[in-house]
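Q: What changes when adenosine-5'-triphosphate is included in the input?
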Amino acid sequence: MTERPILEVRDLRKWFPLGSSLFSRHRQQVKAVDGISFSMRRGEILSLVGESGSGKTTVGRTVLRLTAPTSGSITFDGQDITRLSRRQLRPLRRRMQLVFQDPFASLNPRMTVERIVSTPLIIHDEPGGIAARRAKVEAALQLVGLLPHHATRYPHELSGGQRQRVGIARALILRPDFLVADEPVSALDVSIQAQVVNLLLELKDLLGLTILFVAHDLAVVGHISDRIAVMYLGRLVEVAETRVLFARPRHPYTEALLSAAPIPDPTVERQRIILAGDIPSPIDPPPGCAFSTRCRYATEACRAAVPPLREVAPGHLSACIRDDIALQAPRHGALTAPSKETCRCRLRSTGYRVTIACPRPSTSSSSAPASSASAPPTNW
Ligand SMILES: Nc1ncnc2c1ncn2[C@@H]1O[C@H](COP(=O)(O)OP(=O)(O)OP(=O)(O)O)[C@@H](O)[C@H]1O
Ligand code: SF4
Ligand SMILES: [Mg+2]
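A: The predicted holo structure follows.
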């Protein structure tokens, strides 16, 4: 029997109405998310990638019900949460948490780390007094590789990586089983990105988390994700297992993103595909395939109707009508997703981007501990 998905999203739309003008008869809508469907297995990391403005954050916030969907449905662990009220959502909030992109902006500068991390416990009336709360904060800090003395610090007294660890500790303190990590490493220095990516991978294994990981850097998501969903202008254009997507992209937009991902080896020749112009406006998307205005394979047929996301191989979905084109895949190991059999999975920063360094977990060269534990702390 197949296991029930922890998250099921069906035909989700999130349109934002724009202020109406005196002279326009119709109110315009920003179609930030325009009919997407996907599901996630328990314990999976699904990465959502795409250019700025493609709707990734809106998907993350809508599936967490931080914003109400315009239409479609969201089912979390078998429960339809699409139309639940704030009060009905409250018990679910503990189970579904968000890690923000910018750790500095998301932490209150006037609060100590202890107060920041313990706030969700207070909001959710977690039983136990101050001592119990303090013990939970300490366990959460330990889990993310911080030390007890960090509890008394303020955000400005921490490094960027430490601040993001605090953000992760705050997201974990209620022991959720589902996390949306919205570009958790893109505001960090490249040398710190690998540490935080490592941390999320280890926590996923340690705590059995399911993570929707939002990013625009395919080089990072290649190492963290089980599957990747590529988004363009509010719609999914390709979904596949990471190794499959890297080995054989089936949508021209994915091909272009892969060609632009940095390869930390100057000797490797590459054929970079430059996408002309910016992503079109989600207020008035192009007819038919929204990517047709920038696609080097576009024909008249592409503009006739929106291509459906269809299965082009088992578990591999693509929204391109052209099966006759051979797309290029990255030719270098740095962009090849790790084999789960050989690598579970310590990463090393090359000083440029994260690459797989070692097939054996015991030989990590990461300069800081990811999580300090191989099992959750005893007081967790
Ligand atoms: N509250 C809002 N009101 C109106 N438009 C919005 C709102 N939130 C997002 N949008 C628009 O929806 C589109 C998608 O935004 P979103 O933040 O989801 O993109 P993104 O893929 O996360 O981009 P980035 O990579 O820059 O974070 C954008 O055009 C954005 O301007
Ligand atoms: S449907 Fe046409 S325009 Fe769209 S991605 Fe495929 S080839 Fe390009
Ligand atoms: Mg975003």
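Observations recorded in class: The first helix runs from residue 56 to 63.
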